[in-house]
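User: I'm new to structure prediction. If I give you an amino acid sequence, what do you actually give back? Let's try with this one:
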Amino acid sequence: MQQVQDGTSLTSAIQIVPVGLRPAVQSITFQALRRGYWVQEVLNQYVQKTPPGLTLYVLWAAISLVPEKNRAPMYATHTLVNEAVNVCHLDKNLFYAKGLINAVLRRVLRNENLYQEISENKNPSYPDWWLHKIKQTYSEQAQDIIDSSKDRPPLTLRLNQRQIPKEQQEAYLKKLQDAGLEYKKISLISGVQLTSAIELTTPVPVNQIPGFFEGACSVQDAGAQLTGALLNLQPGAKVLDACAAPGGKTAQLLELFDIQLDALEIDPARAKRIQENLERLKLENARVLVGDASEPKGWFDGEQYDAILADVPCSASGIVRRHPDITYLRQEVDIRNLQVMQRKILTSLWSLLKPGGKLLYVTCSVFPEEGELQARWWLSSMPNALRLDAPGQILPSKEHDGFFYALFEKEKK
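Assistant: Good question. You get back a string of structure tokens that encode the predicted 3D arrangement of the chain. For your 413 residues, that looks like this:
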């Protein structure tokens, strides 16, 4: 939590935690970040001055685990107090804080009017500029977008249609039932038909999902599974997935279509992860390239593509519930900088596309500067770009995260 406050992503910070402890540490940290602004208001009213160092973060984590209004508690209240106090025995810098932590938690837990006095709705974990942007853009849906970030995200599977074609899906679903995993099919999002999206009612570790390590399925948000249906690739097509890591959309395209695909990623470590995913899923006909999507000279072989997926870097404002550190890491100036980068990538990729080819522009953002405004800019900047039917902005819901999709065709000469 301290590293996130200092500007490090939680994905990077959590690498120091032993693998066996990561799920629990991540669960508590996620809860602390989701409720962080509300916790700060609680501390302002229950503590005379901000506690120093580790004491602050122990209190922050513990108060975030106080039972939420109208939700089942993550921990029994006596367990919460006892464990927070026990933590103080693990570090000499915390030993003196036992009394403070015990007293504050007990006072907070005794207050039956806590949520009347300190409203969570009035203290969402967003900076002011972010809230203003959401409310200004989505006046009617703003509260739903803000509330969605407090939800624990669904665990949605994408069945590998190379291993589990449509006619065998029922047999796999029976395996889920036999493993005690309840599920529901997700067949339609924003008018786009999905064929292999299965949401588990209760999220579980992947080692409990039948056939996962043998490549039967992948974990992928339902909103991210629109890619295949929108591109609808022809057999033998040469395809580029730019900014491809961790490889979920790469894999989906290879599962659905008989194509030749280049998966491009600027980070060598993340590129390795793409390769590992493809090997687990037993997918072929793909090259994993390390390179910058905005600088094709270093990796492009000169043969243009029939289709390009441009899932570009963005604010990730549509996936806050999966990455609650985002609202702590982003600054308003980042949106403009990302917009410039997105335009540079689009411009570079367009020259690699064959006439008559399609480019699918994707972000996991809800900000128009990274979505609809970018699509309109592109149309006005590229006279040979034709915009095809695609969902545009998809706002986060209980079933899926927030995404933007725009599909373009390059006019034939």
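You can read the tokens as a compact description of the fold. Here is one thing that stands out. The first strand starts at residue 155 and ends at 159.
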